[in-house]
Amino acid sequence: MALSQRTIEAIETPIISLPGAKHYEVVKVINLTNHVYNAGALMVSKRKFDSLPANLQDGLRAAAIEMTPDWRKSMVDKTAEITAFLKQQGLTINEVDRSAYRKQTQGVYDDFRSIIGADLFDTVIKQVENT
Questions:
Q1: Strand ranges, E, within 9-130
Q2: CA distance 72 to 117
Q3: Which of 9, 30, 56, 77 could join 52 via S-S bond, C-beta 3.0 to 4.6 A?
Q4: CA 30, 34, 39: angle at the middle one, nearest 5?
Q5: What gap in Å lies between CA 118 and CA 113, rounded to an integer?
Q6: DSSP E strands: which ranges in 74-119?
Q7: How many whole angstroms separate alpha carbon 123 and alpha carbon 37?
Q8: Measured distance CA(106)–CA(119) in Å, rounded
Q9: Are 16 and 83 in contact (CB under 8 A)?
Q10: How far is the C-alpha of 28 from the C-alpha of 89, rounded, in Å?
């Protein structure tokens, strides 16, 4: 509603969320900054998980690892499908100069690298740079 009433001018959301919320009816321009990694997490209650026999815990862990590549592929495919849909709806989709964007936000990276942990931070950045 805030978008349609022009109370706010922009939102930050994964592109695959736009059709479900019908944001494409109001938003006319999408800037692909790719500055957020929206990880899909398989979650379970620790208490429930710990109550399961070891073989079931192992099976769940193995299934989570096995499904990860398919989940990631599904997300890529769905993003491409929705991007095509949004273009058909007349939206303009801009590829943002990622290196310029990164340069302007470098201070945030610097601030959070030590908080997140250098190893995890560097691993994620390396993955992002490969996309």
A1: 29-32, 92-95
A2: 24
A3: 56
A4: 120
A5: 6
A6: 92-95
A7: 13
A8: 18
A9: no
A10: 9
